[in-house]
Amino acid sequence: MRGRHVDSYSMYKRGTRDHVINTYDYDKEQVRLLSGVGKDIGNPSWKRSFPYILLAALSSFLFGYHLGVVNETLESMSHDLGFHGDTMAEGLVVSTCLGGAFVGSLFSGSIADGVGRRRAFQLCALPLIIGSSMSATAKNLWGMLLGRLFVGTGMGIGPPVAALYVAEVSPAYVRGTYGSCSQLATCLGLMGALFIGFPAKQIEGWWRMCFWASVAPAALLTVFMEFSVESPHWLFKRGRGADAEAEFEKLLGGPYVKGAMAELSKSQRGDEADTVKLSELFYGHHRKVVFMGSSLFALQQLSGINAVFYFSSTVFKSAGVPSESANICVGIANLLGSLFALVSMDKLGRKALLIASFSGSGYDYSGNFS
């Protein structure tokens, strides 16, 4: 009798173990298929998700545009609004936008998780439209500052949501390349602002047209995002598994839906197991990751790159260099760097590019380490 119990128990344990192994192998196979290494299925087509990446990149384009829109226009704007020669007022026109971006960035995560990625993009575009219109019609310094504050709020919301959205809707094998598209769009926005600002010194009131021009892409972002796909990750987290499958089918194609859902379910279980409190980010093993990520962003800003985008026309003019030619060179250099990252991100890896970029920024024009 006892022997039969032992045999039954052994069969139960063996069956449970086999079930666990089979389940694990199934999950592994689904992840393998999703990542595109299955011999019989290949990688999902990048063409399916690419239009949505381009649409999301509009927010990065607007971010770059509003970074550079005051570069060529600041002088004529200061004459028209009565603060020419007031360096404090000129600095406020620039920094008010950054202050608004700080406020917007504080709420971008909550907005994206609360209303979804698509609605977050639309909420990002709304203050950009309002702020650009206010800046274009400003009659004095205070009107311009209020408009720049609205614009900054939209700038703070957009890029974090864009980075999150791109990571969640792109196939794994091109995720790095698609992530670089946002930086490329920022560079194009900067160059667009510089080019459209060139006539500002010759044509009276042209600076107002420069602000009006940014309303169009913001409006396009608002309208077309209504027809874009929602992030399957966000839908799954909200308990809308069927909707997540439908979006995966649009993004990856039918053969990849089951594998994508398996990986999503697995990552969701991992997220629930690894949930931490905000205070835990500042001690323990989380502290190192937070410190490294924050330091990278801080070093990028402390490099002074934003000052180039804001005041390069003034600096080049004081040095006796034609601002138009110099700004074109700055824009092209920035664009070439982004193009290099675009084609090499998934080949060389993130770490190698970070080391190379920060090493290069440590040298001044004389070739000495600064």
From TrEMBL:
Residue ranges of domain Major facilitator superfamily (MFS) profile in the record: 52-370
Coiled-coil blocks: none
Key words of the record: Membrane, Transmembrane, Transmembrane helix, Transport
GO molecular function, one term: hexose transmembrane transporter activity
Membrane topology designation: Multi-pass membrane protein
Protein's UniProt keywords contain Transmembrane: yes
One Pfam family here: Sugar_tr
Location, primary (coarse class): membrane
Keyword hit for Zinc: no
GO cellular component: membrane
Residue ranges of the TM segments: 49-68, 88-108, 144-166, 178-200, 206-229, 289-313, 325-343
Subcellular location: Membrane
PANTHER family for this protein: PLASTIDIC GLUCOSE TRANSPORTER 3-RELATED (PTHR23503:SF114), SOLUTE CARRIER FAMILY 2 (PTHR23503)
Stated name of the protein: Major facilitator superfamily (MFS) profile domain-containing protein
Organism of this sequence: Gossypium barbadense
